[in-house]
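ingest -> validate -> predict -> emit
validate: passed (alphabet ok, no gaps, 254 aa)
predict: started
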Amino acid sequence: MTLPRALRPLAPLGTIVLFLAGISLVWQGVMQVFAVKTYFMPYPGPTWLAILKQWPVIWKNLSSTLLEGLVGLAISVVMASAVAGLCVNWRSFRRAAMPFAIAVRSIPIVAIAPLITLVAGRGFATAVIVVVLATFFPFFVNAMRGFQDTRPTMLELAHVYGASRWQTFYLIRFVFALPHLFSGLRTAAPLAILGAMLAEWLTGSAGIGYLILDSAATRDLELLWASILVSTILAMLVFWLTAAAEKMLLARTT
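emit:
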């Protein structure tokens, strides 16, 4: 059975709803079978109600996390695409840049977060830097793979017609790399949310990560688990929106 074309974009959203319903059922079953005390974990019903009751507080912090993640991801995508493009076009640049790219991947963010905080302060800038560090390498690797995956015949055709390096990159390499770029984006987008939350945990700045820590410290378990659920839904929605954008754009370019 196939869905009507008008309803197909909503299929991933329905999957998310079914997934959350399944999680709630399992959650409820575990609570009852193992007789888990509510001062350790609340039941799913009160947790969902807490989302509705505390929505103004949750949304205020959630919007901060979302803004930090989106800004950091945008910067990371631009930087990674530029570096990957330069690496593909100039071997000398690739030999010089690859060690730095690997170093960025190897940096323990938790360890250098205090240093970032000293330089950028406890706020938006630190969260953006952490997001960039968390998402740069996954997107960079996919961008490199995509730019190198261009058909040699298309590159020869561009050379025959006298296309410049920039024209060859933008009109041919970039188009052929789109599937790889979206693959990297699907990986990096949820990492952007997690990176923003990590920065909030480490710096105590406003956001859904800080709300989780604060509600845990005050033993407000319903708000704690509501915040965890909302952050999970946000990561899933970001992944779904990225996949939907990929399908729409690739359908137009093929």
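The chain has a mean pLDDT of 83.
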